[in-house]
Design brief:
2 domains, four-stranded antiparallel sheet, Aminopeptidase, alpha+beta, eleven-stranded mixed sheet
Length: about 375
């Protein structure tokens, strides 16, 4: 299938795995593991996407003059809005009430991963408009309601805006490394009351426990078995069933090696909780967590404080600890803006969404201003 326009011919593949890793990664680059061939193909090989998941892989490829891909997009035909973290259920309901079919839609994303990054993967930056035109052609020629690129890095927004896509804002909480030599240096920048509270939380969380940081070959099948139990517990409580399959985690560990960081809490040598992180070029990305014991503050310790320790040790610029969570603010994670872009071909539906986004943007700005006033950092620090 090849959507064509006056300027571009694109290929649609039945999965990222259909393209050699070296060709995909020449476009994706090494910085963000969530758009790399290893991560995306592990989702496919494990059955986490495809089949009955409601995520049908449909990567879009634009070839260059040399015959090799010059631009690719991790695209999926979606039968629902689960696992996206940018919520459009209200849009879907409105379009359904108006007599339209919101699903299927086209999603350009790293599945199940609210991680900002490039969504137009460009070996040649000049190929961005061609790739966007190809995505639009997929929607138009197949009668889809819309296309959505979620958690788009800010540097790529001008490409989407120039093509007329609607831009949506959201909020996450990230920790920034200000050249700290250790955790105590970070604590010294906080207000006294916050500093004392964090020290008490950390002491209470690890009492009687051993904390281990594992990566690469250090992560054994036994560790993945334990983490699968943690992940299932969190998944069943948050969204009813886990998105990822059991096979995904060892495939990810094998494919990414030292870029996988598993932080475990053990009691008497037995893991009782864990947090899974991926290491990027300049950021530590916290993704999944779970536990089999209720230990006060252990979630904060493994997901936030140990992540800060790891980022400082690796000289990484920031920690991105996933979607939402105002409780992160008191722990040094400050609000940042996230972005998504939306192609809606129907004029009436587009107008209604655009009006909604204006109101939502004002609310997001007001909320971020309020949250910034609650910063735990010392005034003037």
């Amino acid at each position: 299938m090849t959507p064509e326009s006056d300027t571009v011919t694109a290929r649609l593949l039945d999965g990222v795995s259909a393209l050699p890793a070296v060709q995909w990664d020449a476009c994706a680059g090494p910085g963000n593991p969530f758009v790399g061939h290893a991560f995306l193909s592990a989702l496919e090989a494990s059955g986490s996407v495809g089949g009955r998941s409601g995520w049908q892989p449909l990567p879009v490829v634009v070839d260059g003059a040399d015959g090799a891909p010059t631009a690719v997009a991790p695209a999926y035909v979606k039968a629902h809005s689960q696992g996206e973290y940018v919520f459009d259920h209200g849009w879907a309901d409105a379009w359904q009430r108006a007599g339209g079919d919101y699903y299927p839609k086209l999603q350009v994303a790293a599945p199940f991963s609210p991680v900002p990054g490039p969504r137009l993967l460009l070996r040649d930056p000049a190929a961005g408009p061609a790739l966007l035109a190809a995505l639009e052609a997929v929607v138009d020629r197949n009668g889809l309601s819309s296309a959505h690129a979620t958690f788009v890095e800010e540097a790529q927004l001008p490409l989407f805006e120039a093509a007329g896509w609607l831009v949506r804002q959201g909020t996450q909480f990230h920790w920034a490394n200000d050249g700290y030599a250790g955790f105590d240096d970070f604590l010294a920048t906080l207000a006294s009351r916050k500093r004392k509270a964090i020290r008490k939380e950390r002491a209470a969380a690890v009492e009687g426990l051993t904390i281990r940081h594992l990566s690469g070959a250090e992560i054994t099948p036994r560790h993945w078995d334990a983490f699968w139990r943690f992940y299932q517990d969190t998944g069943s409580r948050k969204w009813g069933r886990p998105y990822l399959t059991r096979a995904f985690f060892p495939l990810l560990g094998e494919a990414l090696g030292e870029r996988v960081l598993l932080i475990l809490a053990e009691r008497d040598g037995v893991p009782i909780a864990g947090a899974l992180n991926l290491v990027g070029a300049d950021a530590l990305y916290g993704r999944y967590w779970g536990s089999t014991e209720e230990v006060p503050f252990l979630h904060f310790e493994l997901c936030y404080y140990q992540a800060i320790d790891a980022a400082i040790a690796r000289g990484l610029a920031r920690v991105e600890a996933g979607a939402q969570g105002e409780h992160k603010l008191a722990r040094g994670y400050l609000p940042v803006t996230t972005w998504s872009a939306h192609y809606i071909p129907d004029p009436g539906f587009r107008r209604a969404v655009a009006e909604f986004l204006v109101r939502e943007r004002e609310a997001v700005g007001e909320e971020q201003a309020y949250l910034s006033e609650l910063s735990p950092f010392r005034r003037g620090g």
